[in-house]
Amino acid sequence: IASSCRRIMKRNSKKPKSKKPKQLTLKFITTDVWNCAVSCTEERWHGHIVDEHPEMTGLENDVKAVVNDPATIYPSTLTGSSFAFEGISTSKEIRVLVQYDDPKKVTLGNTSGKVQTAYPVDRTKYSVPNLGPAIYQRPVAAPAATKKKEGDPA
To answer: Taking the model in full, what pTM does it have?
Structure first.
């Protein structure tokens, strides 16, 4: 009994483990249309995005491009702090879900966000995604005006 008590006391007297947050490695950082910094860690990229969506392998630059210059941005209806950025990459339409630190300041450019996931848009598989109405649409470029040549009728 004495030896088991000593073992229990010894086990309980161990130093508590440090509660330091794990240092994450940055995969990339870019800015969104409102100039908010948006980052993605190596752990998120490989541990979730590529693991769950292998077709995203090697498409980091496409994900950055969609966040930087999306065709459309929708708010998530699942969380009040995430937004879905959609745009065309080199070969497919991509959706990137970004969670912001302070979603009320997103359109003011006064917050930062983290990529939660990214995947090719499959409107058959996800015919009704958990997204609200669009809050941003890329402006359509107006056709270039043709200059009137001298002698052309008015």
So the answer is: 0.76
